[in-house]
Design brief:
The protein has 19 helices and 38 strands. It is of the alpha+beta class and 755 residues long. It has a 6-stranded mixed beta sheet, with helices on both faces. Helix 6 crosses helix 7, helix 11 runs parallel beside helix 12 and helix 17 runs parallel beside helix 18. The longest helix has 52 residues. It is flat.
């Protein structure tokens, strides 16, 4: 391998010039840095440096730049100098070996680069041949670019580049698992993108959301796929299913009592019928004669024990009737013989059919004038409820709930229907069932009515229902007696839950408090996510709904009721109120009295407070009086709805309507030094009034709107000119009146809008 003076100087770490001077002193003929150095030249230079002597002090400068001094007229290099020179020679030998290795490696890299360059050249030449002649390609530029890229890659690999991080050049598609609800920021983290990108994609989909908002699974998957990843719907552990499977019954199912729901239109005698069966006076204690919440009663009859559920008949309680149908075995449909089928009767029929339960019809009020049971049967047959005596399968019994006529036959028919159904349930094991009603009692706390569907409920059992948990302190049957336990089909009142469950919630007994708390926390978390999602959807809906439109008037309402079912029914009814200009917004709702926190919330959001069979405590009263918060108490639901309608009407801006009072035709135009132009007119329609606004019409097109500054009949100023008379009219700030124009006198009136 050829080594030049320049290469050897770099190895020895001295300048080219200094090396050439020493080589010439050693008797070598090298004069340029490009001259080659042979091994023999290296040995000659080394011998010269070793054998150099001087009579005076001389300095020998080693290749490493260290000076060794020798004294005396004819002294030689000392032993120290000799040792040092040996070290220099060793270093030179090592440097030479290292140089050889580097040169070998470099030659290999140059060969590889040359080979790659040739391959690229051949490749581009081939492409050039295949490319159409009208599209020339700069092969030289492309080849140069490819070689530069290759050299850059080689340098990166040579300079310990094996451990360097390289940014991915291509988008990597990933599978993103999306839960049922997810926060926008969390979704961005899963995809390793900025939150703003997710928000931007949501906006393109018409969804308004911030980085902290929750979005549903379907929307999240759309965003994931929009960004380029693969969205996978994550099936989360369904804790509700696990909860349902917590209780395993080992015993054989046994016959149980039937659960009967009484349904029908308002004032058709449902509660009166049940009252006769129970031998009590329930109906006397109801406001306006209307059942405001579900009542559950166990009744001993000659046909055995039956559990009756009385549901409200008013239109507002549709959801409560639906819940009654879903928890029952048999529906007793009460229809007044003198009134026939009404809207709530049809609704009850639909709920019963949807729940797939048996129907027995009680045609009530047969003792009244105008009663026509056969006509009622015909109306029911039109609704696919054909009487058994007409060849159908629906049992229909004429009764008088007030006198008791036909009630025994009705009970026999119910018992027969129950026998056909062969109703059974498990008696041994933990109880589970449904909450029929719930309320917050001032003295007893949370009070719930349970309908037990399986198992046996005992005092001290640990129960979870919705978000509420607690140990059963007391069980009270429908007769008001405290009992130790209750079995399937029993309707009982229980005390001991830490909060009021929602009517319609499932309840069940669990093993320990830890398990109960886990279930409650899971449900609270899920409810919170749903609530946040609903709030976001409502706010986004309001935003898009009101774009470019007049903003809706909103009546904020806080509702407090005596029982949960009534609260639910009122909320459903209020949400149905309103129109395109006004709506009701339920700020807060709950069971129990009106508290200080309710009053403070009403102040904060400018809300009205509605109390249904509840009252405000002293602390709340003080705030309500000081802040003049609108508060109203009610005990009948349709009165409450009328009150809210009136308040919503008060929010709406009045409607301004225009009414044309009279029209005059311009016959001639005169100039008056006092009033300017005066139009001589004939009143052709209605009356012309001095103090009303006017319009000038030309060819039936309005060209000016203003007011009169004069109205004269002959030479007298007047306030009114009647139809068929002539008059002079001066229009304020208008001087372009012409014969043939019409002057229209009109009036504006305000009318209150109605909901």
């Amino acid at each position: 391998m050829t080594i030049t003076v320049k290469d050897f100087a770099k190895t020895l770490k001295i300048s080219d010039k200094a090396l050439i001077e020493r080589m010439q002193k050693a008797g070598l003929n090298h004069s340029k840095d490009s001259d080659e150095i042979t091994p023999a030249d290296k040995q000659a230079l080394l011998r010269f440096l070793k054998g150099a002597k001087t009579s005076t002090s001389k300095s020998i400068t080693s290749e490493s730049g260290v000076t060794v001094t020798s004294k005396g007229k004819s002294s030689s290099v000392t032993s120290t100098n000799k040792s040092y020179s040996d070290n220099i020679e060793a270093k030179r030998a090592a440097a030479s070996e290292q140089l050889k290795e580097q040169q070998t490696k470099r030659e290999e890299q140059l060969k590889a680069a040359t080979k790659h360059k040739q391959e690229q050249k051949n490749k581009f030449a081939k492409k050039e041949q295949e490319r159409p002649s009208d599209k020339p390609v700069n092969v030289k530029a492309q080849l140069s670019s490819a070689v530069s890229a290759y050299k850059k890659k080689e340098r990166s690999n040579f300079d310990d580049g094996e451990h360097r991080f390289e940014t991915p050049k291509e988008f990597i598609k990933k599978d993103i698992e999306v839960p049922e609800n997810i926060q926008v920021g969390e979704l961005a983290k899963l995809m390793a993108v900025k939150g703003g990108e997710v928000v931007k994609n949501l906006m393109s989909l018409g969804v308004v959301a911030t980085i902290n908002d929750y979005i549903d699974q379907e929307t999240a998957i759309l965003v994931v796929e929009e960004i380029g990843h693969n969205g996978i719907a994550l099936e989360e552990e369904n804790l509700e299913e696990d909860i349902a499977n917590l209780i395993q019954y080992q015993d054989k199912p046994q016959t149980r009592s039937a659960v009967i729901t009484v349904m029908g239109h308002v004032d058709h005698g449902k509660t009166t019928l049940l009252d006769f069966i129970r031998k009590t006076k329930v109906v006397d204690g109801e406001a306006g004669g209307i059942t405001q919440h579900i009542g559950a009663y166990e009744v001993e009859t000659s046909k055995g024990r039956l559990t009756f559920i009385d549901t409200p008949g008013h239109a507002a309680f549709s959801s409560m009737r639906a819940r009654g149908a879903n928890t029952t075995d048999i529906v007793v449909l009460v229809v007044a013989a003198n009134d026939g089928i009404k809207p709530q009767t049809e609704e009850a029929i639909n709920h019963a059919k949807a729940a797939g339960v048996s129907i027995v019809v009680a045609i009530n009020k047969i003792d009244l004038d105008g009663a026509d049971p056969e006509k009622v049967k015909g109306e029911l047959a039109a609704k696919d409820l054909t009487p058994d005596d007409w060849g159908g399968n629906i049992q229909m019994v004429p009764v008088s709930a007030l006198k008791g006529d036909g009630v025994d036959e009705l009970l026999e028919r119910i018992a027969l229907e129950a026998e056909i159904l062969e109703l059974k349930a498990h008696y041994d094991g933990a109880a589970q069932g449904v909450v029929i009603e719930s309320e917050l009692d001032k003295f007893r706390g949370s009070v719930s009515t349970f309908l037990i569907q399986n198992g046996t409920l005992k005092v001290s059992d640990l129960v979870v229902s919705g978000n509420a948990i607690g140990k059963i302190k007391s069980i009270i049957n429908s007769d008001g007696d405290k009992i130790k336990e209750a079995g399937p089909s029993a309707a009982v009142e229980v005390l001991g839950l830490n909060s009021v469950p929602m009517a319609g919630d499932q309840f069940q007994v669990v093993k320990n408090e830890k398990q109960a708390r886990e279930i409650a926390e899971y449900r609270i978390s899920k409810n919170k996510e749903k609530k946040l999602l609903k709030q976001k959807d409502e706010s986004a809906g309001d935003l898009f709904e009101t774009l470019g439109q007049e903003s809706k008037k909103v009546l904020n309402v806080i509702i407090k009721t005596d029982v949960g079912g009534t609260c639910e029914a009122i909320i459903a009814s209020l949400n149905d109120l309103g129109n395109e200009k006004a709506k009701v917004k339920i700020v807060s709702s709950g069971v129990g009295g009106i508290s200080e926190s309710d009053a403070n919330l009403a102040v904060a959001v400018e809300s009205i407070i509605l109390g249904f069979n509840v009252r405000a405590d002293n602390a709340a009263k003080k705030i309500i009086e000081e802040e003049t918060i609108p508060l109203s108490y009610h005990s009948i639901i349709y009165e409450l709805l009328d009150d809210v309608k009136a308040r919503m009407t008060g929010l709406l801006d009045p409607i301004i309507k225009e009414e044309i009072v009279g029209t005059a035709e311009v016959l001639e135009v005169f100039n008056s030094p006092k009033f300017g132009q005066v139009a001589g007119c004939n009143v052709v329609e209605g009356n012309v009034l001095r103090n009303k606004p006017v319009r000038v019409l030309r060819d039936e097109i309005v060209i000016f709107e203003g007011e009169l500054n004069s109205l004269r009949r002959f030479k007298e100023d007047v306030n009114e000119v009647k139809n068929g008379n002539e008059c002079g009219m001066g229009i304020k700030n208008y001087k372009d009146i012409k014969p043939g124009d019409k002057i229209e006198v009109f009036d504006r009136k305000e009318e209150a809008q109605q909901i």
